[in-house]
Amino acid sequence: MFDLGSILLAMSDAFTITNILFIIAGVAIGQIVGAIPGLSILMALAIAIPLTYTLDTLTAIAFLISVNKGGTVGGAIPAILINTPGTPESAATALDGHPMAKNGKPMKAMKYSLYYSVFGDLSSDIVLITVAAPLALVALRMGPIEITALMILAFTIITGLVGSSMIKGLMAAALGFLFASVGLDPAQGTPRFTFGMLDLYDGLPLTAMSIGLLAVSEVFVQISRTTRLTSTAAPIRVRSDDPEDQRVSMAELLANKYVAIRAWAIGTVIGAIPGLGSATAGFLSYSITKQSAKDPESFGKGDPRGIAASEAANSAVVGANLIPLLTLGIPGNIAAALLVSAFIIHGVQPGPLLFEEQGRLIYGMFGAMLIANFANLGVGQFGMRLWSAAISAPNSVIYPAALLLCMTGSYVTAGGLFGVYIMLAFAVMGYFMRLFGLSIVAFIIGYVLTPELESKLVQSMLISRGDPAVILQHPIALGLLVLAVASVIYLGPRKNRTPSTAETAG
Fold first, then answer.
1. Average pLDDT, integer, range 11-17
2. Any idea of the CA torsion for 92, 334, 224, 409, to the nearest 10 degrees?
């Protein structure tokens, strides 16, 4: 691992004009996309990945992380102004943000959401920077058998927590396994499911597949739900005659400091657990805050504590969900899974070895994350009124532009029309997966993890010589498998899941 001097030097790599400009651009794009209902940050990430193809690795990762961070802030704008969350994680913010806006304080509500969001995100990043390297050291001591057991545990948790049922989650993950098997067998080098097509020897292009599943299928869903393509929502008037309704003082922010700190802690813990998402953190934090308040009846009427509880929690997930990715190679949610494809495009393999092999890159990424938080604050403060205008953009403009970007990105990353065909095929598949309640989160994470799981499983079989009793000599692996069985027993029968936890783990 790096010493302190090397860490500071690596972080300083992020402080170049090029990186800072891309970070600001990423934050701005994320906030705009988050502010437009019908679009999603996952869609923006899937489209943005091809744009980073020719960029330096650090610049590319910094740009994508900035898009993700900006979207969390932007999603609160329509939630506050028109009671329509721009992103799923902002749904809890609407509970008190929109009533505050209707009370004549829309700018005040948006500033509350911005400040508490940046606080939660920044604090979570500090936790990530502090704990990631020590956890990676622990992970490096785990052998193939332990890692195989850990991945099995991760799959059971993810499939149990996302989607409407564990059965559907396992079905989606199994589909991910199946499509990840396309290409050359890593053990024997023989082709599988290629049907004689040379384009499939390297497997299905992850970026084109992700764009189809996340972006294009979402456009299809939105179009099918839209009755008038030019329909727009009329936002609440942003400007108020009272100057006090336009600003938030430091005293007002500090009045809710304990709420924000508790929300940050909840979001950080939830973000570090694979399968849980920002929406879960926001609603859980809001619920706990309301139940612990002396005057719970004030919530839902424009209470700033509700905004603080939601925004600090859902933003804290953004940094924390990289903890399992960087330490274990397991994406914490679907946004982290998309970052895996960006890493792979630039020749970097996520996992605990990153800190040994790419330590300078990782700490440079940490530096970029810190810059992105302050960029979020500056861009959000400057563009608040401007992003609110994006809500009025007609769908007849948004959806064709999104489809054009999707096709272009798939063409570029896959090197031809093959990528576009893959994108369209998985767009149709993604549409029907959404229709039947199969988790796209479980599918993509299953697809991303399968090559590593297969590799470790082959190594485990070679070490054990096919004898399953060897697991008794590896107590850590045995414990992880017991936890996997326990998670199936506990999570499997759960019913009446709320929609907010279904597809919002990304």
1. 88
2. 130
